[in-house]
Amino acid sequence: MHSFTEENYLKSIYHLLLSKDSATTNEIAAAIGTKAATVTDMLKKLAEKKLINYARYQGVSLTEQGRKSALVIVRKHRLWEYFLVEKLQFKWDEVHEMAEELEHITSVKLIDRLDEFMGCPRFDPHGDPIPDAQGNFKQHESLQPALLLSKGQCAKIAGVTDHSASFLQYLEKSRLTLGQTITVTEVSNYDLSVMVEPSNKEFNISHEVAKNILVLL
Amino acid sequence: MHSFTEENYLKSIYHLLLSKDSATTNEIAAAIGTKAATVTDMLKKLAEKKLINYARYQGVSLTEQGRKSALVIVRKHRLWEYFLVEKLQFKWDEVHEMAEELEHITSVKLIDRLDEFMGCPRFDPHGDPIPDAQGNFKQHESLQPALLLSKGQCAKIAGVTDHSASFLQYLEKSRLTLGQTITVTEVSNYDLSVMVEPSNKEFNISHEVAKNILVLL
DNA sequence: TCATAAATTTAGACTAATCTAAATTTAATA
DNA sequence: TATTAAATTTAGATTAGTCTAAATTTATGA
What we know:
Two copies of one chain form a homodimer. The first copy, chain A, is α+β, with helices and mostly antiparallel strands. Among the domains of chain A are: 4-62, Orthogonal Bundle (Arc Repressor Mutant, subunit A), CATH 1.10.10; 144-216, Ferrous iron transport protein A (FeoA) (SH3 type barrels), CATH 2.30.30.90. Helices cover 41% and strands 18% of the residues of chain A. Chain A binds a DNA duplex through helix 3.
């Protein structure tokens, strides 16, 4: 089993590797909120345990074993988030910190029972896919940033790329929550105007916001 | 907030103080599974933080603040055990280790929501009382060891004093679970014979076992 | 391509929690 | 009460994870 700290490193590296194929010491330090020197020490330890591929100054990637371990943590995190929102009625912007602790509860049997108890959900409250017990998961097909929509297009909100509480609260206030259908009524250089259904209220959202909302046509 | 380790010390001291009014260094070491020297260091730290009353060589007791902190941990432990048994279908002998981890999840809001979600249970799966958010709880009135029953008496199983998995499994196999009604049909020097309802099967249980089963008349 | 900036690593130190071994205090009893 | 045994504490060391400051490597661009 891995320590609490090792798990956090694996998880952070996993997330960094979603958008590139090598993560740097500084990026990891920023993600974890620690110093580069500390990261270097931990990278040596994780390499020793064959959880990452590491060569000095060259950045890191996960080994197959490391990826598996990371996916277990991601699975736990997302299932607990689902539990907190669906069973304990927390808002989607409140659950991250709690899930950061709960994801380190070791029992695999517990997480499998929790999964079953909730009906094996495939997506967490932010639209992120929940890996199954084998680490397999499917992202929504054809998910794209709302920014790419053109005038007249209609789409359903299915995810976000910014998970910060402030962004999620902004969306909540604007009724731009998961599952919501939006229609683009206007596109300018500065923002999109969208019609939110079923409330049928019109709305402007900035490029920055539209970039971080993921939709399905 | 207290560290994971500090919480374990407070919890162990709390449990030791249930049957006496001072806990010794060695008792704490045995309860936690560590060495006496280690305990001494931690006792100094807890005393520094005003969580325990400590004088060298004299044993320890909890301060009001220490007791409050211990009760929060006991509350968390027992609510999680209830959740694991009632919602996730674990057996009463399987939940202890998981609850030992879950009890350290910090969020108080989470535990209060969990409490509410489960309908504010007053007793955990072993019959132990669950403190409320203020740390108040009521033990069953007139709870007594089954050992004290005399021939012909009828009583309901409402708790255990031995929480080990092996004891709980033994009881499970013998249908001697919480809520079960038993009638004493015979008392010898070596054991009690009891009639278990509603299965109406007769049974012998040793003094040692009868001592660790708590019943209500 | 060479100087410099940025990124990374190494060296050395710190803290929390732990240990063993030795010293001290308390308790038990002859 | 004096001796010895048991319990407890102190002293000094260890490990995991962290830090700062200095040294090294890589990348940039004049």
